[in-house]
Amino acid sequence: MRFKRLMSFWIFILIIMVITLIGIPTALLGAENNNQVSSDETGEEAELFFAEDYARIHGVTVDEAMERFKLQDIAGELSEELIAKEADTLAGYWIEHTPEFKLVILFTRDAEDIIKPYLQKYKELSSIIEVGTAKYSLAELESIQEEVSSSAESMGIPVDSAIDVYKNCVKVYVAEQNRTKLNRALSEGKLVLPDCVEVETIDSLAEPVAEIYGGLSLSDGTSGFSVKNSSGTKGITTAAHCSNSQSYSGTSLPFQSQNHGTYYDIQWHTAPDFTVTNKIKTNSGGTTMSITATMPRSQQWVGALVYKYGKATGRTAGYIKALNYRPSSDHVPNPQATFIWVDDTAGYSPLCDHGDSGGPWFTAYTAWGSTCFKLGGEAIYMAINYVSGIGVSVMTSP
Length: 398
Known about the structure:
The chain has six helices and 26 strands. The chain is an alpha+beta fold and 398 residues long. Strands 20-21-22-25-24-23 form a six-stranded antiparallel β-barrel. It has a five-stranded antiparallel β-sheet with strand order 15-16-12-11-26, with no helix packed on it. Strands 1-18-17 form a three-stranded mixed β-sheet.
């Protein structure tokens, strides 16, 4: 009996020890995670963060926010198809979040008839699409934008420009110091503006953000996205207007190539002393998020809420204001109207500053673009699909 009692006692002690030992690692692991310099957000965690932030901004439920994100992704597929098939009549498209969530699409004629087959194909969007008409197609506005911008710059007048889809017009922006020169060219008939062009005077044109950061702080800038070339060599991007001589944590990053002109402001470097993974930094605490998808310019909408990270201003967010921003040739040689303009109306200002160039623009685990310029408190980025201009693709897996 005594032996049995002793056995029972030690079995009891052993059970207590096992339970305790099982609990200890869990507690220690939790404490370690709380103090990690960097951790990787899962897809669900990332999606939840963006949904909660959207819900806060717009006063809706998290479930409603997640549903809107899903519809926004489908809208990207629709816009890409409209650009390809309806270029002659497509006049503009954007997302509205308040007072109700909807997609507005303009055509130059026959709006109801043109959209009908798409409502059948994209049934999830049929109840939130509103169509209308406008005078000029996007293709016409893009042509006018290029002609006016190039003409002004040929006269030594640097200008930025963008298409305002809400007003169906081209906006030309001139620095205050050059407005008199522009007015003289207009009065002398050297520069002629169509009726769909509006000129606006601003303090200064978009400026390159000299020192950058997107995911990690580089010696001259912010890293953007992890990329690889056709042979599988991996590296990291930043803005082309940054120095070609880059380092991270004191270690040199060998320069590979860059493209600075027309659609591009991008360069990339290999990182032989580091492991390159498909992550970006998303807050100052060091949290990271895996990038598993990309959003090409053709699937981006005016009105979409996008986020960025940079070493100067951290994580900020804004709504896309224009998909056709054309920076002056002072900053991008032979610029084309393909840069993305993000406004500062989401409660974050400034969106970027010197030091943020090259940094990533993103939504939940999706790459949207790379920071190029600051424009007052707002920002200009290069759409992510243009990384192909340096012969690489964004890594969407380790």
